[in-house]
Amino acid sequence: MRLFVSHCGGQSSLETAYHGVPVLAIPGFWDQHENANRIVSQHAGIRIDFVDITEASFLKTATTLLNNPK
User: Fold this and answer.
1) For the domain 4-67, what is the CATH code?
2) How far apart are CA 1 and CA 16, in angstroms?
3) Is the CB of residue 27 less than 8 Å from the CB of residue 47?
4) Residue ranges per domain, the chain?
């Protein structure tokens, strides 16, 4: 797997960190927002808020993550 699209729940965040896969973070509620913020602050992914997501923003973010060698 080269990219993980996640709601940023606790378990999926831990699994993603363990495997070192970049995250397209789309948090929904509760701890997911804080988990998404941690992912972004650690340069492990990019966050898109659910209410702001469009097909274009999703594709642009996914392409950015897939093409970033870091």
Assistant:
1) 3.40.50.2000
2) 10
3) yes
4) 4-67
Q: How far is C-alpha 53 from the chain's CA centre?
A: 13
Cα(26)–Cα(23) distance, integer angstroms: 9
pTM of the model: 0.88
Task: List pLDDT tens digits, range 27-60.
Answer: 998 899 999 999 999 999 999 999 999 999 999 9
C-alpha separations of 11 from 6, 14, 31, 60, 69 in Å = 11, 5, 11, 26, 25
The DSSP bridge partners found for residue 47 are 25
Q: Which residues contact 53 (CB under 8 A, 6 or more apart)?
A: 26
